[in-house]
Design a protein that fits this description.
255 residues; binds zinc ion; 6-stranded mixed sheet; binds fe (iii) ion; alpha/beta
Length: 255
């Protein structure tokens, strides 16, 4: 039976995610920007937290981990590469390690770029991937620590997941991301249709941080940087894939 997923809005535009395995009753949270909204969501569903999964070291993803750990005794999973700057880990993870949540397992994917030591979690049986500030809705994280080459190769790993995978990212930056995407890929009919849909979702206050990978591949400019028409449109037909990505990331930083 697949995991039950609840997106929990936190702080200004962050998302934490609750994952509940109905068979074992175990419940994990991916990232802890804040404590109160997570307790509320757990209580509303009658779930008890068993596990805390950390994607990367930024405060807006780990700020509530220690409090939540004290409140619940949950087990903490995070990247070994970042163990020195994360709360104390019960499980220090490297790429390919498996996170177990009751009957479900998630694979750890190393996705450096936004930070070094940023990891994603892929639960293949539930068709979900938690990408935080690597692959984001219609965008990708800023490069604070990694190189464009590292981020491009991280995005390529995520693009190789099955198309049906639900991408669950760390923030809702859709408004700015949509404007930028349209500026670099204005003729893309899927993108134009999606932006119209997103306006409707925003008006109806539907959460927008969870999207099928297929839709991201069709509309997210950072997953299209390698396509010939895209390079052509930017006047860079001979750029390598990672050069095209680097140009795009720089253009977004100054947009
Ligand atoms: Zn971050
Ligand atoms: Fe963040």
């Amino acid at each position: 039976m697949p995991l039950t997923l609840k997106a929990v809005p936190c702080l200004r535009d962050n998302y934490a995610y609750l994952l509940h395995d109905p068979e074992s009753g175990r419940t994990a949270v991916v990232d802890v920007p804040d404590v109160a909204p997570i307790h509320e969501a757990l209580d509303a569903n009658g779930w008890q937290l068993s596990d805390i999964l950390i994607t990367h070291h930024h405060d807006d993803h780990i700020g509530g981990v220690m409090r939540l750990r004290e409140d619940t005794g949950a087990t903490i999973w995070g990247a070994r590469a970042d163990a020195h700057r994360l709360p104390p880990l019960d499980h220090a993870l490297v790429e390919g390690d498996l996170v177990t949540l009751g009957t479900q397992t998630g694979a750890v994917i190393d996705v450096p770029g936004h930070t070094i030591g940023h990891i994603a979690f892929h639960f293949p049986d539930s068709q979900m991937a938690f990408t935080a500030d690597s692959l984001m809705v219609l965008g990708c994280g800023r490069l604070f620590e990694g190189t464009p080459e590292q981020m491009w190769s991280s995005l390529c790993k995520l693009m190789a997941l099955p198309d049906e995978t639900l991408i669950c990212s760390g923030h809702d930056y859709t408004k700015g991301n949509a404007a930028f995407a349209l500026s670099v890929d204005p003729e893309n009919p899927d993108l134009r249709a999606r932006v119209v849909q997103m306006e409707a979702d925003r008006t109806a206050q539907r959460p927008m941080a969870v999207v099928p990978l297929s839709l991201e591949k069709a509309t997210n400019p950072f997953l299209r940087a390698h396509l010939a028409y895209f390079k052509q449109a930017q006047g860079r037909p001979t750029a390598s894939d990672s050069e095209s990505f680097a140009w795009l990331r720089h253009a977004k930083d100054t947009f």
